[in-house]
Amino acid sequence: MKKQFLVTLFVLLTYLVKAQSPVYLFSYFVDNGADGLHLAYSLDGLKWEPLNQGKPFLTPTVGKDRLMRDPSICQGPDGTFHLVWTTGWWDKIIGYSSSKDLKQWTQQKAIPVMVDEPDAKNAWAPELFYDNATKEYYIIWATTIPGRHKEVPTSASEKGLNHRMYSVTTKDFKTFSKTKLFFDPEFSVIDAAIIQQANKEYMMVLKNENSNPPEKNIRITATKNLAKGFPTTVSKPITGNYWAEGPAPLQVGEYIYVYFDKYRDHKYGAVRSKDGINWEDVSDLVSFPKGVRHGTAFTVNPTVLSNLLSLKR
Fold it and tell me: How far apart are CA 256 and CA 271, in angstroms?
């Protein structure tokens, strides 16, 4: 049965390579993130299967806790895959590595994004985005700096956490701009990710992290000029009556999908939209590997997937 499946998949991938049809990958972590980077693939954006028999592709070596949570991958115009991640609960750094094939990775390094902020508590859930207009990469992440921003009521378990989005830009991952405030909607915000739509407008999906009363939902905002930033007036929740985090946007055909972690329910969900305004919950249509947690979805050439699938043979 397994051999027959691989043969069928190989034939399909051969067809996709000839047709130059895109396929999709999803980077994620499991448990607490100690074992490293995991990858899954999909041909339709709905059914996701683990790669490398569910084993990690890269084990974390940087940070106090040596974790690899919230892995975000972006492929550059030269074909290089860039990876950033959360290295630990209370670090002021972000982990970084790169790869030509998603198998072999460069030596991991720490990007010291918040080390110049003595009161910064953390650097959580970094996301990568390559802007074709400026030919540079944006890294955005969430940090709490006590007393810096408008206070919000918090729960006992989240006392003192009041996140805002910060950013740096880079062209080569060797030199970086100074850290700056990227997005402040005057509520606790985390897990922001950017996608450029077919109309060239930039959409950012994000989590309202307010805890008292709890929001814990996904919202969106959009801009035509990334350098000028995003409007801080955001949409109503695009997710339902459950707690959601780690939104990952992906263009699949005419739809924009947003995948997210229903972390209290220990499963993944999704919504999709053709216009970025009207959203349909398709959680019942998607399936993900067991234990998948906060990751990123991205498009690759079928040849990339073929090479990754060779690890199974």
Answer: 8
What gap in Å lies between CA 152 and CA 187, rounded to an integer? 7
Residue 71 near residue 108 (C-beta atoms within 8 A): no
**Main-chain dihedrals φ then ψ at residue 302, nearest 5 degrees:** -55, -30
The DSSP 8-state label assigned to residue 92 in this structure reads S
Tokens of 243: 């707690």
**Contact yes or no for 110/97 (Cβ under 8 A):** no
229-287 tens-digit pLDDT: 999 999 999 999 999 999 999 999 999 999 999 999 999 999 999 999 999 999 999 99
Residue 37 has what DSSP assignment? B
Among candidates 238, 216, 241, 111, which has minimal Cα distance to 163? 216
Answer for the pair 179, 205: CB distance below 8 angstroms, yes or no: no
- pLDDT higher than 70, residue 32: yes
- CA 41 vs. chain centroid, Å, equals 15
What is the three-class DSSP state of 284?
helix
Confidence class of residue 12 from pLDDT cuts 50, 70 and 90?
A: low
